[in-house]
Amino acid sequence: MKISVLTMFPQMFDGFLCSPLVQRALKKQIAEIEIMDIKEYVQGSYRDIDESPYGGGNGMVIRCDAVLPVLNRIRTEQSHVIVLTPAGNTFVQKTARRLMTADHLILIAGHYEGLDQRIIEEADECISIGDYVLSGGELPAMVIMDSLIRLKEGILREGSSEDESFENDRLEYPQYTKPAVYEGKEVPSVLLSGNHEKIRIWRKKESLRLTMRYRPDLLEIREPDEEEQEYIRQINNE
Ligand code: ADE
Fold first, then answer.
1. Prediction pTM value
2. Ligand 1 centroid to 213 CA: how many Å?
3. Minimum mean pLDDT among 44-58, 111-125, 192-206: which range?
4. Both 89 and 185 in a single domain?
5. In angstroms, how far apart are the furthest CA atoms of the chain?
6. Which of 93, 174, 196, 230 is 20 to 30 A off residue 130, Cα-Cα?
């Protein structure tokens, strides 16, 4: 998979590109990442990338003639073009699963107050990473790349993403490791019992407990099955 990012602040990606996840993906040739500085591609260095909006209003808007020529140069039949904006569909784990199979993703990170609508019209979709406004699309681009790359085969240990939060519309159960007792705080004894069925049940119930507490909305997206309904009854009676 190739990911091209169009940005005016390429330096923001320096740390991200050094992260162990990205390094592993690059070394194993699982992903190729190209950070493109829009400023370098604007014809004539005198030209501004942003302008005040027609019709008046606050802030600056990124010009379409700064972005579209670069986009058209790198875009192919295989490209899937995404504009990062708070006014897009919310990015969730299912979005990551859908996008991870793309051959070529182009992520357009806007800055200032926004992008000229003619850029947005050229995109295949607009994605927001949540209901808050950031100063630009760079952090969202990194969030999306991180979540996609870690799903790729050969990046994580096999099966290790399956039980994760959101993978089946539930939050992940709590995890413990050594020491078994730390300053009087004990690891739940069932996890030390070696009884796989009891551990499975404990995890399922604790995953439900967390989901009920922090993300009850997920229980509406996927309704509890019979086993889960029983655990919910038990939790409510505790
Ligand atoms: N740009 C600014 N805020 C954003 C958000 N929440 N998601 C995606 N892009 C953005």
1. 0.94
2. 27
3. 44-58
4. no
5. 70
6. 174
